[in-house]
Every structure is written in structure tokens, then in C-alpha cells.
Specification:
By secondary structure, the chain is an alpha+beta fold. It has six helices and eight strands, in the order ααβββαβββααββα. The longest helix has 25 residues. The radius of gyration is 18 Å and the shape is globular.
């Protein structure tokens, strides 16, 4: 567990909301991260959701990340079905069912880490308001509750429910492109 924590920031136990929902029974046993050789595809078992499937890489090739994710989800789903005869829980109205209610719907959180020194100078409240308009969510690079460091932000789609995976990824791409363009203007404004 300590190696996983150091490399992948497996969150520490003790979250009162997760404890009250029964999601930290026997913490940290029964949890793990499986990944490919390049560490660009990961499957987290029993971290917060029962299964969290992640595709990531350095650079801006979102299409390659998305294609790897789609292939990986299919492979994991087929393996689970073959082994257990069960499928991922899906509801026609609410989409895929997750332990974390904010992930109802597609469960897709597409994000990029981007330096936004202009927005940082403008202020976090201004960035949050602009992201709200763009249907995005800014976070620190240490996760949902990890706080902000420097001018690097994790920017992702805000919504999960009522949109397709492709719509959510496109929303993130379009919004990040707008934020980047505006950031250049804000850098000039603030003399950066």
C-alpha cells in the first residue's frame, strides 16, 4: 500500500462520508491498482468507486487517451463478464451506477493539467466562475480535496449525467482551449 500511495496518491482512509456509507470497511486491505507497462492505463479496485478505469499520458493527444480508454473499458467489462457472469451496473435513466453519486451518468471525468498563470493572478474565484460558465471544474493537481499548488490546475468536465462520453470530452477540450486563450490575455494584463 505504501508504494501505491507514493506513486498514485491512493487517498488515505478516514473520510467520514465514505465511512458512513460503509466504503472503508477493512481499509486499506482489498484495494489495488493494476496498470500497463507504460502506466498509461490503470484500473483501481475498491479505492472509492468499486472500479475506476483511467487512461492518461503526457501531451495533448486526447484522441489517443480516449481510444485507449474505450478499448480498456471494453476489455475490463468482457473480463468481468467472463469471470463472474455479471456486467457493469447500468440504469437507462441514470447511466452507470457508482459508489460516488457525483459520477452517476457516464462516470466520465476527462481532465488535463494545464498551467494558467494569468488565471492564477486574476484569482481562483474568477477562474471558478469562468469554469462554471464553460461547464468545467477546476481542481488542484492533488485531487478533489488536495488543494492548489502553483499555477497548474486540473481542469475537467463538470457534468456526468445527461451527456455522452464524446460530448463530455469535447466540452473539456473546447473549454480548456478557451481558458488557455484567455490566460494569455490575462498574463498580459497582469504583466506576466
Amino acid at each position: 500500500s505504501s508504494g501505491i500511495n507514493a506513486e498514485w496518491s491512493l487517498r488515505p482512509g478516514g473520510d467520514p462520508n465514505l465511512i458512513s456509507a460503509g466504503m472503508e470497511r477493512d481499509w486499506p486491505e482489498g484495494r489495488g491498482i493494476f496498470h500497463n507497462k507504460d502506466k498509461t492505463f490503470l484500473v483501481w479496485a475498491n479505492e472509492e468507486d468499486q472500479t475506476r478505469i483511467i487512461s492518461m499520458q503526457m501531451g495533448g493527444d486526447v484522441k489517443a487517451v480516449f481510444e485507449r480508454l474505450a478499448r480498456g473499458i471494453s476489455a475490463v467489462q468482457e473480463s468481468v463478464k467472463k469471470e463472474s457472469g455479471k456486467d457493469f451496473l447500468f440504469d437507462e435513466k441514470y447511466g452507470y451506477i457508482h459508489s460516488c453519486p457525483t459520477n452517476l451518468g457516464t462516470g466520465m471525468r476527462a481532465s488535463v493539467h494545464i498551467d494558467l498563470p494569468g488565471w492564477t493572478a486574476e484569482g481562483l474565484d474568477s477562474l471558478k466562475a469562468r469554469c462554471e460558465e464553460l461547464k468545467l471544474q477546476p481542481r488542484g493537481t492533488r485531487g478533489e480535496s488536495g488543494g492548489q499548488t502553483g499555477c497548474t490546475f486540473d481542469i475537467s468536465n463538470k457534468h456526468r449525467l445527461g451527456y455522452s462520453e464524446v460530448e463530455l470530452v469535447q466540452c473539456m477540450i473546447d473549454g480548456v482551449n478557451i481558458l488557455f486563450k484567455e490566460d494569455l490575455e490575462l498574463q498580459s494584463k497582469h504583466g506576466l
